[in-house]
């Protein structure tokens, strides 16, 4: 029996999706619940699983094409045997591409040519991106995934091998060289450009950033915090905490707890503007920004005020893994009353974070650096971090913003305050 593979109902407020990539080609045998194709929306990546065991006989729409709910993506022939596969591709190309007969060619290549021959179209978007960044071809690497497909781990393991073992016979043109050599004179003066369409999530990020700049009166205030007390606690309880909870004790749980105590003192920072009304939230849903290959996303810690340090750390790890694997759901991203972003993971010393509308404020963490500071009249070396609070001046006055950030500083420099809630 033939089963049509259709675009599922899309999340609310999402009207279209882009085919990010197929995990199987026409003629492949698939099992029930195996993910056939990834659909990228402006918020999340949706998986379309097989509804039965069988053979994928048709791939009708190529990667990069725009689809809507109910569109037929391909055909699955139920059962262990099926008729010869048909690499049939709908005449559809991504926005900005050549539509003059170009729709069928990319999918014919993907359907008929095995991944082992070096065609990256059979790989996931993440693998293709990593191959391009490292300057490798899929034909150089043995895949361990389904049907011999490459995984990111395969590519990274290949890249980590000694150069003599991994160097191809002819170095790819885009492979990064440690320094220019005289033999490269033939390419001197070449100014290459590459034009690619924005991903849907990048379009949405751009839209949200412009929206924030256009609708909010953003202002940023700064402070610095001495993290010696927090560092001492982490060093003292690192091993017993991980042994008891199965997760490492990081800095983020301290910042979430400190932020919540400050939000309780200054309700306007946890509020939002809706038209001419101010909405004061009686709960604390804290967004924690996560950087992924697709862009920055902000999954939400629900009711963060009732979570323990261990629960906060576990939830952050789980949401981070889901974000990097494209498994976040709309519920993971919806809502949020306050956000925290940590540029320090990339070495940032100071920045001005941008609001995540309709939230009224966002806390920016940065790198921890040993610096000389004066404590009790003595110059000592302490692990210091700059903090930044960007806030909507329409709702939050400068006094509130400064006192809010100072409250976070005081809680982190004397963590016992968080226990006593003072």
Key structural traits:
422 residues, alpha+beta, OB fold (Dihydrolipoamide Acetyltransferase, E2P), Chloramphenicol Acetyltransferase, 2 domains, 11 helices, globular
Mean pLDDT: 81
Strand residue percentage: 15-25%
Given the C-alpha coordinates, what overall shape results? globular
CATH superfamily heading of the largest domain: Chloramphenicol acetyltransferase-like domain
Largest sheet: 7 strands, mixed
The separation of the N and C termini measures 67 Å
Radius of gyration: 26 Å
Please trace the helix and strand order, writing H or E for each element: EEEEEEEEHHHHHEHHEEEEEEHHEEEEHH
CATH topology value of the largest domain:
Chloramphenicol Acetyltransferase
Structural class label: alpha+beta
Count of domains: 2
**Number of H- or I-type helical stretches:** 11
Give the CATH level 1 class of the largest domain.
Alpha Beta
């Amino acid at each position: 029996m033939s089963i049509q593979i259709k675009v599922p109902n899309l999340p609310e407020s999402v009207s279209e999706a882009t085919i990010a990539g197929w995990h199987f080609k026409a003629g492949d045998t698939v099992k029930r619940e195996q993910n056939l194709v990834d659909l990228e929306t402006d918020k999340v990546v949706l998986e379309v699983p097989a509804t039965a065991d069988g053979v994928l006989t048709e791939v009708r729409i190529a990667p990069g094409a725009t689809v809507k709910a109910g569109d037929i993506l391909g055909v699955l022939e139920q059962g262990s045997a099926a008729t010869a596969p048909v690499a049939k591709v709908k005449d559809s190309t991504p926005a900005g591409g050549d539509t003059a007969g170009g729709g069928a060619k990319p999918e014919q290549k993907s359907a008929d040519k095995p991944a082992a021959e070096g065609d990256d179209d059979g790989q996931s978007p993440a693998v293709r991106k990593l191959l391009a960044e490292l300057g490798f071809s899929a034909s150089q690497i043995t895949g361990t995934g389904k049907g011999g497909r490459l995984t990111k781990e395969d590519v990274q393991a290949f890249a980590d091998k000694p150069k003599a073992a991994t160097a191809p016979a002819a170095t790819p043109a885009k492979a990064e060289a440690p320094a220019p050599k005289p033999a490269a004179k033939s390419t001197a003066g070449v100014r290459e450009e590459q034009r690619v369409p924005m991903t849907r999530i990048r379009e949405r990020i751009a839209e949200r950033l412009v929206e924030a700049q256009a609708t909010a009166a953003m202002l940023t205030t700064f402070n610095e915090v001495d993290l010696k007390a927090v560092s001492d606690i982490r060093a003292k309880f690192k091993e017993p905490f991980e042994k008891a909870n199965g997760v490492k004790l990081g800095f983020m749980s301290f910042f979430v707890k400190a932020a919540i105590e400050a939000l309780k003192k200054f309700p306007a920072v946890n509020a939002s503007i809706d038209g001419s009304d101010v909405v004061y939230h009686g709960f604390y849903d804290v967004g924690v920004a996560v950087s992924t290959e697709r862009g920055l996303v902000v999954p939400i810690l629900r009711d963060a005020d009732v979570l323990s340090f261990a629960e906060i750390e576990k939830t952050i790890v789980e949401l981070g893994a889901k974000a990097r694997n494209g498994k976040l759901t709309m519920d993971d991203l919806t809502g949020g009353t306050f956000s925290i972003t940590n540029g320090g993971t990339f070495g940032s010393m100071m920045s001005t974070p941008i609001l995540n509308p309709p939230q009224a404020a966002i806390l920016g963490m940065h790198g921890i650096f040993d610096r000389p500071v004066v404590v009790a009249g003595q110059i000592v070396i302490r692990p210091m971090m700059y903090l930044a609070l960007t806030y909507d001046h329409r709702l939050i006055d400068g006094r509130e913003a400064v006192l809010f950030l100072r409250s976070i500083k005081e809680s982190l420099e004397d963590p016992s305050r968080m226990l006593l809630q003072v």
